[in-house]
Write a structure and sequence with these properties.
Layout (H helix, E strand, L loop, with lengths): L2 H6 L5 E5 L2 E2 L5 E5 L2 E5 L7 E9 L3 E11 L25 H18 L23 E7 L15 E5 L7 E3 L8 H16 L14 E8 L6 E7 L4 H14 L5 E6 L11 E6 L3 E6 L2 E6 L8 H15 L6 E5 L5 H7 L4 E6 L2 H13 L5 E5 L2 H8 L8 E4 L8 H10 L3 E6 L2 H12 L3 E9 L9 E8 L4
Parallel strand pairs: 4-6, 11-12, 16-17, 16-19, 17-18, 19-20
Antiparallel strand pairs: 1-5, 2-3, 3-4, 5-6, 7-8, 7-10, 8-9, 10-11, 12-13, 14-15, 20-22, 21-22
Helix pairs in contact: 2-10, 8-9
The chain binds S-adenosylmethionine.
S-adenosylmethionine (SAM) binds next to helix 6 and helix 8.
Amino acid sequence: MNDAEQIVVKKGDSIELEIESLAFGGKGVAKVEGLAIFVERVIPGQKVLARIVKKKKSYAEAYPLEVLRKAPNEIEAKCPAFGTCGGCRIQNLEYTDQLFEKTRQVRDLIQRVGGFSDFEVPAALPSPEAFHYRNKMEFTFTSTPWRNHPDDEDQPFGLGQHIPGRFDKIVHLETCYLQKPVMNDIMNFVFAFGQEHKWEAYNNKTHAGWARNLVLRYGEHTDEIMVNLVTKTYEKEHMQVFKQAIMSAFPQITTLINSINTRLSDTAIGESEVILHGPGHIRDRLGDSEFEISASSFFQTNTRQAETLYAEALKAAGLQGGEVVYDLYCGTGTIALFLAKQAKKVYGFELIASSIKNARRNAKAQGFDNVEFILGDLKDVLSQNVDRIEAADVIVVDPPRAGLHQNVVDDILKVGPKRLVYVSCNPSTLARDLKLFCATDYELVSVQPVDMFPHTTHIETVAQLKRIRKG
Ligand SMILES: C[S@@+](CC[C@H](N)C(=O)[O-])C[C@H]1O[C@@H](n2cnc3c(N)ncnc32)[C@H](O)[C@@H]1O
């Protein structure tokens, strides 16, 4: 560390900062003599008094103590839990300003991390609905709900969302504006039932307690509703009482599940499921394709905007009708079936067995005979199958936030499709992976951000690459 760096700021300093932009992950960025300072829970345009909590060679991190001046475009957040709940981090920005910031983030990462220095990124495509757009929400039970105010009384039971950065702290919610109003009614009913029947909330430090999560899913085009209560054990008699109560209050629930999770890890997916009512899945449509979605399957959470996302992916795939396509990380086969209408053959690859099962059923129900779904971990399963199946003209990837495993990058380069479509939920790993492909065999053609998650700092992106050299 040189002297100049020491002078700028040091840990523990309280300092006034002008927030200039939002970095990937949602932290505000301020600059002090060229040093980037990342500040939690702020928006561009605000002036804040902040405490430096971390100082590294090339950046610092700060926590806001007080907002000294509001941003000119700052608005009143709709949700009373705003600022405490980890769900919506930028609800106090107009939606158009949120889109502007997200576009700027993607452009910055593509240019700076990806090394595509002058590459233009068009404005993010807006979600048709800015509220009530989520078709799935996961809530967590707690025996120590977060107190919003020091004078608030301690409560023994709560149901809500994690507060940012705290795996063990949950803020109780009565309304979540990201889900449909009926889902709020169901959430409040389950909370009141649990309170009345003295459910003991699972504690992820001591691992005592029983009630873990409530997962709600809604079929945007079908109005089907899934209620999935995640608990540590199956209590048969009590579940019958719960079933009767909730089904008589909400007869529109189409499936009721009790997932059992005995694992220590804080995940809302059960090791086993008891289906208390209905078929154990809901159905929803994307475009004119219908999908079966079970409790543990991945399905895009903003149904209407997923249709925009897939239309972008389809456009980038540039299919003429005779192509062989691989859909890597295919989930329940949604992209695969979108593409299959315009391709000769589509192979979908996916890790989760229940998603593959849903994908096969979805394909069969819709009469597709040109799709095949292959189960396995993509770091191995692509190379294991590549000699058996037809070579791909186009590959579409839609990995989780960590991006592509190096084996997957290597395997794609070996297959060498003419076009590669990268659907990403993390522009940072997207930029890293695009750089790998474009170091040798591919060129970047287009990058289109699509906003699937208004009021959060997440952004989806579709990138198109074209092969320029057979590696
Ligand atoms: C972002 S989702 C995309 C799903 C699908 N394309 C869609 O739009 O609904 C990522 C998917 O990758 C799957 N996945 C995660 N890690 C994987 C791995 N190592 N190998 C294969 N699939 C994996 C997940 O189960 C999930 O279904």
